Amino acid sequence: MSHSDNAVRSRLTFVCVGAGRGRRFGSDKVSEMLGDRTVLETSIAALRAAAPAAPVVVVVAPEAVERWRETLESASSGVLVVTGGDRRQDSVRLGVARAVDGGAEVVVIHDAARPLVHPDDIRRLIGTMGKADAAILATVVTDTVKRIDENDLIRATIDRGPLRLAQTPQAFRVAALENAWRRQDLSRDWSDEAALVEADGCEVRTLLASYPNPKLTNSDDLDLIRLMVGKGT
């Protein structure tokens, strides 16, 4: 590990976001069980395995704060549970603010709904930042991509070579996020924080994931993730 990697790790905090109301899923998806742990606990475990000394700020829905504090927080856990906001991006901002209160200069933001993220990919992502403002985990596009018009007619086939599908974790220098929050339109719904800092002119690197990292959105996803956990994937 390089000196610069060690410097990043020394001031790094994870922000694990699980504050959604599960409208598409139908219930609190981060409370679903994967073996003997919940989805949220599984995500946190992956983050802790990647950088055991780094604090973890966990952002959850207001009605779930006390329950998760009882489950996750202890004097030695290194986990702090905070209340989320109305939108994902609001929850992220609240989590980052708490991380900054603790001295963080680099934050690694992860959606709790991706519980199978591999610690090796997290470590590689942190090392990928270099001098960039941010770095995100991503995958290649394997299907043919079509652009259509308002009548669902194909108008172009898009070269998929330079395209990437964004995942989490996403690592950011706190200064880049704070500048973007100050200068960009926060009434707009940003698809992720990478899009926000991109709009602010920041350099964002990508790292191809080496391991499966599916997102839990619906019940079929849960079945798949449980199958993968059972097979030790």
Write the layout of secondary structure elements.
Elements: H1 3-10, E1 12-18, E2 33-34, E3 37-38, H2 39-50, E4 56-60, H3 65-72, E5 79-83, H4 88-101, E6 106-111, H5 119-128, E7 134-140, E8 145-148, E9 154-158, E10 164-173, H6 174-183, H7 193-199, E11 204-208, H8 219-230
Overview in brief:
This protein is of the alpha/beta class.
What are the secondary-structure elements, in order, as H or E? HEEEHEHEHEHEEEEHHEH
The CATH topology label is Spore Coat Polysaccharide Biosynthesis Protein SpsA, Chain A
Number of helices: 8
Q: How much strand? A: 15-25%
- C-alpha end-to-end distance: 26 Å
Uncertain segments: none
Largest beta-sheet details: 7 strands, mixed
Please tell me the CATH architecture by its name.
Alpha-Beta Complex
Helicity range: 25-40%
Query: Roughly how many Å is the radius of gyration?
Result: 18 Å
CATH superfamily: Spore Coat Polysaccharide Biosynthesis Protein SpsA, Chain A
Total strand count, please?
A: 11
Shape: globular
Structural class: alpha/beta
**Taking strands numbered 1, 2, ... along the chain, how are they ordered across the largest sheet?**
5-4-1-6-10-7-11
> What is the CATH class designation?
Alpha Beta
Instruction: Give average pLDDT, whole number.
Output: 93
- Domains, number: 1
Question: Would you write up a description of this structure?
Answer:
The chain has helices at residues 3-10, 39-50, 65-72, 88-101, 119-128, 174-183, 193-199, 219-230; strands at 12-18, 33-34, 37-38, 56-60, 79-83, 106-111, 134-140, 145-148, 154-158, 164-173, 204-208. It is an alpha/beta fold and 233 residues long. The chain has one domain: Spore Coat Polysaccharide Biosynthesis Protein SpsA, Chain A (Alpha-Beta Complex), CATH 3.90.550. The strands form three sheets. It has a seven-stranded mixed β-sheet, with helices on both faces. Strands 2-3 form a two-stranded antiparallel sheet. Helix 2 (39-50) packs across helix 5 (119-128) and helix 6 packs across helix 7. The longest helix is centred in the middle third of the chain and has 14 residues, at 88-101. The protein is globular and about 60 Å long. The two termini are 26 Å apart.
